[in-house]
Amino acid sequence: MRVVETCAEMMALCKEARRPLGLVPTMGALHDGHLSLTRQARADNATMAVSIFVNPTQFGPNEDFATYPRTMERDLELLEAQGTDLVFAPLPPEVYPEGFDTYIEPGEVAEGMEGAARPGHFRGVATVVAKLFTITRPDRAYFGQKDGQQVAVIRKMNADLNLGVDVVTMPTIRDPDGLAMSSRNAYLTEEERTAAPVVYRALCAAESLRRAGERDGGKLRTAALDVLHGEPLVSRVDYVSVVDAETMEWVGISPVERRLMIAAAVRLGSVRLIDNVVVG
Ligand code: AMP
User: Fold this and answer.
1) Whether residue 180 has its Cβ less than 6 Å from ligand 1
2) 167: closest CA among 214, 112, 122, 126?
3) Nearest CA, atom 17, ligand 1
């Protein structure tokens, strides 16, 4: 396993790497969700590359960039055990040198939900993923459904800009009680951790209603909200949204065959959790 810190060296190594090359972009603090992506990338490709980069441009000024968990040594051990060939772990000035001034601006797909709650977030995500795609020129790139809108933004960018990458979406990995794994779960107090599965329970309530034939997105949303409002530790619901699973457009009345994503962002104390389910 080679650990590389500069764009130039990563580019050179990827150019001569055996193909196909699979890329797994991450921000580190790896858990079983990340490892499900690397496992699939390992199985599908001759070369497996993983990036570990806490990307400053996707964090807002009042977000947790400075305190985001960083566990590089342990991450490298896990990646070595997974048979990773290349780890790209640059520091921010390597990715954004002085004078950096070109960004990717995603369109409507990035407007609602996370895009509305975190202005500039997807501009940062799209820019860094475009850079990672350009540096590594992957045949395939792996993303988790956990960040459902992020996958939609990347798929749209990949199509609109003819980047030619096979974007693979992997299912959300959960703890046994339903909580979607996330590096940010480490911020939860014991009490909050006990309450946290309420997010998935809320989404499941909406999902079962849909499976029972409910056509009205508003009613699905209310069903999820009712569950969330029953948990006193939920300090705020940023959103519950019922959207088209591909375009992220808000969906009102729709036939049950239409693929919907039901997504939520919820605060438990000061910790912000996101999750979603896809139905149809
Ligand atoms: P992050 O390090 O949070 O940027 O995540 C890196 C990749 O892992 C993204 O594509 C995430 O969607 C994916 N990921 C994070 N958590 C999970 C999870 N619980 N299940 C599946 N994929 C995940």
Assistant:
1) yes
2) 126
3) 33
CA distance 89 to 178: 31
Q: By the 8 A CB rule, do 210 and 260 touch?
A: yes
Q: How far is the CA of 255 from the centre of ligand 1 (A)?
A: 30
pLDDT digits (tens, 9 = 90+) for 200-246: 999 999 999 999 999 999 999 999 999 999 999 999 999 999 999 99
Q: What CA–CA distance (Å, rounded) separates 142 from 23?
A: 6
Instruction: Give the E-state strand segments of 107-161 in sequence order.
Output: 140-144
Nearest to 259 by CA among 270, 271, 249, 274: 249
User: In a mutational test of the pocket of ligand 1, which residue from 34, 39, 57, 177 has the highest number of ligand atoms less than 8 Å from its CB?
Assistant: 34
Q: In the predicted model, what is the mean pLDDT of the chain?
A: 98
167 forms beta bridges with: 141
Please tell me the distance from the alpha carbon of residue 145 to that of residue 151, in angstroms, as a whole number.
7
Is 34 labeled as catalytic in the residue annotation?
Answer: yes
Indicate the helix (H) or strand (E) that contains 52. Answer: strand 47-52
Kindly provide the b/e burial profile for residues 4-37, where b requires at least 16 CB atoms within 10 angstroms of the residue's own CB: beebeebeebbeebeeebbbbbbbbbbbebbbbb
Angle at 270 between CA 51 and CA 202, to 5 degrees: 85
Query: What DSSP string describes 65-106?
Result: TTTS---HHHHHHHHHHTT-SEEE---HHHHS-TT-------
Average pLDDT on 73-93 reads 98
